[in-house]
Design brief:
Elements lengths: L7 E4 L6 H7 L4 E18 L5 E19 L2 H10 L13 E11 L5 E9 L10 H13 L4 H8 L11
Antiparallel strand pairs: 1-3, 2-3, 2-4, 4-5
Helix pairs in contact: 3-4
Length: 166
């Protein structure tokens, strides 16, 4: 497992889907919806399937909404493997790396919570997501009742145009 650790995971991408998280991290528990200030949602690298995958990048005034899960050490190990983190490998060779972020929870009384999230190692070029991948992010945003304005922003994401040959 990577050195950065915390009991809470902040996810902003397809892992917001509760069924996907339960499959990948069976002991994880959804705790809160949260807002990460000072970052934007980006798609800086391509997946094995060719579409862009989500990440976050620093941007003063930016906001990324997501879901906070409590995690066990086994959940972290499973997710690290899934996100392309390999112990002992140079960080720039990973697909993602863990970073600590401070997230504001959305609940009756908002509080700041230190969480771990994954940030993609960027690749050169443009990497728009596939419609299927964007739909999984939207599904998680809707399922977890993220703010309507943020869902509207997600819906405006430009997706990869798949060419078909006849």
């Amino acid at each position: 497992m990577s050195e950065i650790s915390a009991p809470y995971y902040f996810t902003y991408g397809s892992n917001m889907l509760l069924s996907q998280m339960k499959e990948r991290c069976p002991n994880s528990m959804k705790e809160w919806v949260g807002m990460l200030g000072g970052y934007n949602l980006t798609f800086p690298r391509s997946s094995k399937n060719g579409g862009g995958v989500s990440s976050i990048e620093l941007n003063e005034g930016g906001v990324v909404w997501g879901v906070i899960f409590s995690m066990t050490s086994n959940d972290w190990e499973n997710l690290d493997k899934r996100e392309g983190i390999r112990p002992g490998r140079d960080q720039d060779k990973n697909s993602y790396n863990k970073i600590s972020v401070t997230v504001l929870t959305k609940q009756d009384v908002a509080k700041e919570l230190v969480c771990v999230t994954y940030q993609a190692v960027p690749q050169t070029g443009l990497h728009p997501p596939s419609q299927k991948y964007l739909d999984s992010i939207l599904g998680g945003a809707i399922e977890n009742d993220l703010p309507k304005e943020y869902i509207h922003l997600l819906r405006g994401t430009i997706v990869q145009r798949m060419s078909t040959q006849i």
